[in-house]
């Protein structure tokens, strides 16, 4: 009989956490028992798993006693404090926050792209940034078939990337704007920033805080996560990457305009690129300009798949191309990718903490 697992969801009441519950319900993981964990403010609430009521518990180190798998999306500081405690108690953790992504002891995984990285985990696996995940989905089949030298990406990121409070703020602002009332912004572009600006009927070219070099941390993440996922080295010069990340007034699903150069001497046609992408799991090609068929966030919301279109060569640069990629940032960009990682851990019999792992994070 196949082993059944005790699974804990940390941050279970949040926008990603509730979707983790849904994705776990639909997954191939045999679940013996589920624990829903959150802050003391949410403790006592009742959610459901496979139709059965489950009471939300306050997350403490002892919450992970007897737990096999942890799916975490409760914020970086919470993961930093609690996930090492979970590992110490024998639980393997998949973390959706940014806290562990650049840690050399932690694999950063998109299951369709680099699943073998899981073979070397130390009890914690990081779920990449949502905008990085969908770009990896579109470009990995290109890299495998034709090589990849350079990426320039401009993102069009949904409000939900900043949490449920940002979605609520966008909706309130839209109502106020249409009613001719002043818009009151308190969340975006960054909750703790000195200035806040409305997103409704606006674009915000800031996601996360600014670094000293003028890039935002979101842009920094896309650059270094791409290198770590594709090349195993967050600072590798083998693929050049740069990014501009923009928040747009869309509730759910990010869009990205990606310019890329393939390997030296390679000049595939657009049809050859489409063929390579069409065979890639989880990637759907929607690319028929003559009939105005291309990916749109409103259609991608609620889907596990990543959608790619507008695939075309750069007319000025040989070996360079453009594409447009869209994905639900709360599903493939977060909850579903995390559950996929857990599925892969189960399939590879890797739901165990190697000896000495906990010390790496204490």
Automatic annotation (TrEMBL):
It comes from the Bacteria. The keyword tRNA-binding does not apply. Phosphate binds at residue 101. Residues 6-121 form the Semialdehyde dehydrogenase NAD-binding domain. The keyword Protein transport does not apply. Its EC number is 1.2.1.11. One of its GO terms (molecular function) is aspartate-semialdehyde dehydrogenase activity. Pathway: Amino-acid biosynthesis; L-lysine biosynthesis via DAP pathway; (S)-tetrahydrodipicolinate from L-aspartate: step 2/4; Amino-acid biosynthesis; L-methionine biosynthesis via de novo pathway; L-homoserine from L-aspartate: step 2/3; Amino-acid biosynthesis; L-threonine biosynthesis; L-threonine from L-aspartate: step 2/5. Substrate binds at residues 157, 247. Keywords: Amino-acid biosynthesis, Diaminopimelate biosynthesis, Lysine biosynthesis, Methionine biosynthesis, NADP, Oxidoreductase, Threonine biosynthesis. NADP(+) binds at residues 13-16, 41-42, 160-161, 182, 329. Transmembrane segments: none annotated. Homodimer. Belongs to the aspartate-semialdehyde dehydrogenase family. This is Aspartate-semialdehyde dehydrogenase.
């Amino acid at each position: 009989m196949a082993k059944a697992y005790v699974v804990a969801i940390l941050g279970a009441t949040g926008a990603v956490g509730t979707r983790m519950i849904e994705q776990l319900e639909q997954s191939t993981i045999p679940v013996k028992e589920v624990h829903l964990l959150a802050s003391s403010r949410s403790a006592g609430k009742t959610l459901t798993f496979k139709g059965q009521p489950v009471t939300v518990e306050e997350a403490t180190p002892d919450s992970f006693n007897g737990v096999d798998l942890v799916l975490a999306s409760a914020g970086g500081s919470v993961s930093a404090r609690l996930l090492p405690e979970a590992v110490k108690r024998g639980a393997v953790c998949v973390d959706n926050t940014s806290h562990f992504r650049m840690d050399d002891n932690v694999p950063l995984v998109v299951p369709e792209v680099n699943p073998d990285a899981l073979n070397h985990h130390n009890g914690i696996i990081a779920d990449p940034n949502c905008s990085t995940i969908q770009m990896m989905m579109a470009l990995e089949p290109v890299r495998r078939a034709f090589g990849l030298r350079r990426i320039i990406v401009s993102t069009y990121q949904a409000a939900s990337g900043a949490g449920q409070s940002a979605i609520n703020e966008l909706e309130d602002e839209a109502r106020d704007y249409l009613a001719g009332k002043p818009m009151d912004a308190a969340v975006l572009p960054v909750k703790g920033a000195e200035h806040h600006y409305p997103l409704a009927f606006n674009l915000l070219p800031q996601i996360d805080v600014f670094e000293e070099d003028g890039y935002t941390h979101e842009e920094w993440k896309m650059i270094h996560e791409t290198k770590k996922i594709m090349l195993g080295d967050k600072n590798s010069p083998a693929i050049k990457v740069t990014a501009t990340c923009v928040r747009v007034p869309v509730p759910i699903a990010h869009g990205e305009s990606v310019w890329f150069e393939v390997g030296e001497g390679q000049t595939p046609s657009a049809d050859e690129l489409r063929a390579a992408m069409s065979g890639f799991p989880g990637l759907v090609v929607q690319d028929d300009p003559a009939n105005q068929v291309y990916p749109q966030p409103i259609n991608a919301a609620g889907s596990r798949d990543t959608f790619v279109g507008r695939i075309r060569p750069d007319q000025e640069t040989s070996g360079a191309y453009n594409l447009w990629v869209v994905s639900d940032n709360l599903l493939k960009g977060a909850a579903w990718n995390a559950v996929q990682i857990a599925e892969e851990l189960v399939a590879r019999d890797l739901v165990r903490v190697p000896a000495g792992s906990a010390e790496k994070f204490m």
